[in-house]
Every structure is written in C-alpha cells, then in structure tokens.
Design brief:
Number of strands: 12
Number of helices: 23
Radius of gyration: 35 Å
Mean pLDDT: 80
Shape: elongated
Length: 635
C-alpha cells in the first residue's frame, strides 16, 4: 500500500528528469516540504499506537489470500495504460497517411491494428476492474474478520477503552473508507502516474516544445493538493470521533427506548440526536469545502492547457505549413493533453480518498494492535482441582490511571462446596470482587487462588469453564430456548436441559409455551420477562457443571418463593460446587454457610446469619428494614 506523501514523491521523481533547472528546484523544495510536514499528509501515521510504516504492515496482513489479485490489478492496469497511450500515436500516423492519399490496404491495416489495440485495452481494463473489486472487497472482509477476532481476545479492561459505538463504526464506516482507498491505490494510483509518465513522453515526442506547458501546471496542482490534504486531515480526525458519539447516542436511545417512551422524552432525545448530527455535518461540510477546491483548480489548469495547445498549435500549423507540426501530431497532442490532465485529476481523487481514509486506517490499526491485558502463562495449568477460593491481600482498580482502589485489603478463604452470601449497598464493589475469580480482571495487588493455585497460572479457557457467572443483567441471544441453554454445554442432551431448567425453576414457564423448548427467543430476550430471563440464564450456567457457581444478584427479578426453591435445588443437586450468591435481600443468603458484608470496597464483617444479626449493625439494619417492609406489606 502507498501513502499520500509517497504518491506525491513518485509523481515528482518521475517527471523531474525532464525538467529545466528552475522547475527542478521547485520540486526539490516540494519534497523538503513533504518531509517536514509529512505528519500532515501521511496516511499511515498512527497517533494512537503505531507509526506510518507499522500501520501499513498491520493493515497489509489482512490482504492474505487476495495478494494475487492485488498484484494482477496493477499489471492489467499497466497494459491498459500502455495501449491507451500508443493508440493516439497510431491514429496520428493514420491521419498523416490519409493526408498523403494512403492505399486502402494500408488503411485497413491501420484500422485492424487500432481495433485490436482497443479491444485489448478494453479487455485489460475489464480484468483490472474485476481483480480490483475482488481484492478490495476481500481485503475489507478480512479486516472485519480480523478486527472481530481481535475483539474476542480482549479483556474487560481492553473493552473498557473502546466505546461499543466506536467499535461498530470502525468495523463498518472505517473499513468501507479503507476499502475504497485500497481499491484506488491498486488501480487508480497505479494508472494515473503511469498514464502521466507515458503521456508526457508521447507529448514531447509528438508536440516538441509545446509540451512544456504541462510542466508549468504540475507545480500549481501539486501545491494545491498538498495544501488541501494538510488542512483536511485534522478535520476528518475530529469527524470520526464525533461519529462515535453520534452512534453512541443512537445505541443508548434504542437500548433504553422503553424508558424514553415511559417518560415521554422522545422530543428531548430527538433534539440531542439532531444537535450531534448537525455537529458532524458542520465538520464534514468544512472538510468537503476544502476538498472541493481540487475540482476548480483542475478545471483551471485544464482550460489553460487546452487554450494554449489549441491556439499555439493552430498558429504553428498555419505558419509552418505543417512542417513544425502537422495535423496528425496536433490531434494526438490534444489527446495526450486530455490524458495528462485526466491523470492529474485521478491523482487528486486518490488524494481525496486517502485523506478521508487516513483516520479510518489509524482507528482500525488501533484495534488490530491492541494487546489484551490478560495472557496465558508460558506453561498453563489445565486442571482445576476443586472449587476452593482464596483472596490474599487483594486490592484492585480498573485502570492504572485510577486514583483509588475499588477493592482494598481483601483476605478471604472459601472451602470447596461452601455456599457464601455477599451483601452490601450499591457501590460496595460486590461485583468487582467476584470478577477476579474467573479472571475477568487481574488483581492490582495480592493473589487470587482457585483450587489452591493462582488464577494467573491457569489456562484462561480452563479456568472460565469451571467458573460459571450469572449476572443480574443477563443476556439471551436470538434463537430457540434450547440453543440458548446449550451455550452452557453444546453437547447437552434434552434430558440434561430439562434437569437444569427444573433446578432453576425455568420448566414452570417453558412448559406453558406452545413450542416448549423450541420457543424462539428474540434478540436480547425481549419476549420473556426479567424473572424468566434470569432463570434461563441460571439453567444455562448449570449446564457447564462448574466447580464454582456465582449468582450476581441473578434472582432479583424472581419472587422470594421461587428464589428459595432455586437455592434449595442447588444445595441438593450441586453439593460439591462452591456457590457464591450476591443479593440485596437477606432472605437470599440467610441459609449460606457464611455471609460477607461489604462496604467501601472492603469486607466489613464475615459470619453466619445469626452471628451477623448479633454482631454487625449494617447487616442488622438491612435485615430489620426488609422485614419491616415485609410485615407492612402483609398488613
């Protein structure tokens, strides 16, 4: 892949050899300007992660099986350009031959040659278009696949760095921009310089000194193009960041559409979206206005050249009576003039596309070069001995830049098979604590052990297969109930599905559905209630047959009677599994082997239900307030 500054340099170097000294000095200064201001026009400068060369290498890895078509495209383009540049020369010879009363045999020979050359040019052009489309589309497909695969390896900490809306934009709009730029690079960016060089040479051959007019307009165009690119790159960088914010607003609104409608806030959300859209529009308009200067600049240069060629060429033919310039040469010179100017126009189009794709390329490379903060050790452990858990002087914060710890000085021992309840107010870091067990995050300080070994010693997949987590905000995927349940165990039999649903009390409502376990679940589980969704997610976790089961407030939408039935079934069917239950209701944890009371990121107290009622004021207040509320409801 070639960046914009390299294309300018290529174009400069290819014509420099035929320049007079004064013009050559201009291009020396132009190259110096490119080197100094390269950061403004360089496609591949990656301010987020990598330098320009590195970013090209990162993106080029996604070409893979499309290398052949990517190489064939420039070859076909070169052959097409060669034929297009030779055709006017042959036509000039034919015109001169006709002027000299050519024989019919020679006329047919010229005609046959022209037809064959035209057909070959058409063939090579069609082949170039086909291979270019295949290469660019395949490149975009691989980019999306590679980005998606890379995101799957991210830890939660990595995902926290990128907004979901930004990831969506990068995999759609940004990839499309890079695809179009790549398509132009392997075709137009090859065709235009070649056409420029060949047409220059042929113009000098056919037109002599009149061809020097082209070397006057090239510096003008080069200065204009470089200035435009230098001005627009910062604008496109701002636009894509605002795109992310715009998509974030859309995503937030759609996810919370029930809340928006229940509070009748549609007008407010519409105004907020319109303001964001207007902001993006303003920046895009500014960038497009600057880019639009390319066209009038090209038109000006084109008309100047055509006026000069037509007037001076006609004058030369008339005054020299065809000695210095004949009609055939003049007609071919006009053709080469159009070729040269159209080539310059194509170069400007490439610059525009590369300028627009510059920020997209950097954003894609940022995803592909992002390293997961969690890695398997060199010699990972592939067996989890049991469900025992140990926290030893553990402290944790979500990022290195965070000023305070979310968890501080956690020391805790849980024996395999125990049932542990965790209770505490909102923001007491209950969920943060349990996320360290399956190593969704690594402890900032201290050691977390499972089965007697540091969780960082385990193979990640092995560890997470033995730790099942059911969150309060559960997610079901579009598909049947059976398909959702088999996320826990893809080989589970129908009998195992039914047993897991019986333990989770999900069979009660599944049996009422006309299609039973083949009932289709809409995306996000929107066609089932919150309690039904929670019970399906519990059943899905049970199918993993884990050594540790974590229920993170996952029965909050279930009535107390069903909650008690689920806990009773878990004790009976999974006696050897360590169970950790995070709850807001004391009733959900009062029969646990021990209960942790958390507050301010610390364990405030540990004990049984009776012990905490007698010794801990926080637990006693929670229990009393909930039971008073229950008594009042009964009254």
């Amino acid at each position: 892949m070639t960046n914009s500054s390299e294309i300018v340099t290529i174009c400069v170097s290819r014509v420099e050899a035929v320049l007079p000294l004064s013009t050559r000095l201009f291009f020396v200064k132009a190259r110096k300007w490119i080197r100094v201001h390269g950061k403004g026009v360089r496609l591949c400068e990656n301010t987020e992660r990598k330098g320009g060369t590195d970013m090209i290498k990162v993106l080029a890895k996604s070409i893979r099986e499309y290398k052949k078509t990517s190489i064939l495209t420039p070859i076909f383009v070169s052959l097409e350009v060669l034929l297009e540049c030779v055709i006017p020369f042959v036509i000039a010879q034919l015109v001169n031959a006709i002027k000299n009363d050519v024989s019919m045999e020679l006329l047919l020979r010229y005609g046959t040659i022209l037809v064959v050359m035209a057909l070959l040019s058409l063939l090579f052009g069609a082949l170039a278009g086909s291979t270019c489309a295949t290469a660019s589309s395949g490149f975009a497909k691989n980019l999306r696949k590679d980005m998606y695969a890379r995101i799957q390896t991210y830890s939660f900490e990595n995902i926290d760095k990128f907004l979901v809306s930004s990831l969506v934009t990068r995999m759609t709009t940004d990839v499309t921009n890079v695809q179009q730029a790549y398509m132009m690079i392997i075709r137009i960016a090859i065709r235009a310089p070649l056409m420029l060089v060949f047409a220059f040479v042929m113009a000098f051959v056919m037109g002599g000194r009149m061809a020097w007019i082209f070397l006057v307009v090239v510096p003008i165009l080069a200065i204009g193009l470089i200035a435009v690119i230098y001005k627009t790159i910062p604008l496109f960088r701002k636009v894509f960041r605002k795109y992310d914010k715009l998509n974030e607003s859309i995503q937030e609104n759609i996810k919370a559409i029930r809340v928006v409608k229940s509070f009748v806030r549609e007008d407010h959300e519409q105004k907020k979206f319109n303001a964001a859209a207007e902001d993006v529009c303003r920046d895009f308009t500014r960038a497009e206005r600057i880019l639009a200067l390319n066209n009038p600049l090209m038109q000006f240069c084109m008309y100047v050249v055509m006026a000069f060629v037509l007037s001076f060429g006609s004058y030369t033919i008339i005054t020299s009576r065809g000695v210095d310039l004949d009609v055939g040469q003049f007609s071919s010179l006009l053709t080469y003039s159009f070729m040269i100017l159209s080539s310059l126009m194509m170069v400007s189009m490439v610059f525009v596309m590369i300028t627009m794709a510059a920020e997209s390329g950097k954003r894609i490379a940022a995803i592909l070069t992002e390293e997961s903060t969690l890695h398997n050790p060199e010699n990972p452990v592939y067996d989890v001995k049991d469900g025992s858990i140990s926290f030893q002087n553990v402290s944790f914060k979500y990022s290195e830049a965070a000023e305070r710890m979310v968890l501080s000085d956690i020391n805790l021992e849980i024996r395999s098979g125990e049932t542990v309840g965790i209770i505490g107010g909102t923001g007491s870091s209950k969920s943060s604590l349990i996320q360290l067990i399956p190593r969704l995050y690594d402890a900032t300080e201290g050691v977390v052990k499972v089965g007697g070994r540091d969780v960082r010693e385990y193979d990640l997949e092995t560890l997470r297969n033995q730790v099942a987590v059911v969150l309060q905000k559960n997610v079901l995927f579009s598909g049947t109930i059976k398909e959702n349940l088999r996320w826990g165990n893809k080989e589970a039999t129908d009998a195992q599905l039914i047993q897991a649903c019986r333990i989770a009390c999900a069979d009660e409502f599944i049996d009422t559905f006309p299609d039973g376990y083949d009932t289709h679940i809409e995306q996000g589980g929107t066609n089932v209630s919150g309690g039904q969704k929670q019970r399906l997610c519990i059943a899905r976790a049970l199918l993993k047959n884990p050594k540790i089961l974590i229920l993170d407030d996952s029965t909050s939408a279930v009535d107390t009677k069903t909650d008690a039935k689920i806990r009773s079934a878990l004790r009976t069917y999974m006696p050897e599994t360590t169970k950790i239950i995070i709850a807001q209701r004391t009733a959900s944890v009062e029969d646990a082997d021990k209960i942790l009371v958390m507050g301010g990121g610390k364990i405030q107290a540990v004990g049984t239900h009776k012990e905490l009622l007698a010794s801990n004021e926080i637990y006693r207040e929670i229990y009393t307030s909930q039971n008073k509320k229950g008594d009042e409801d009964e009254e």
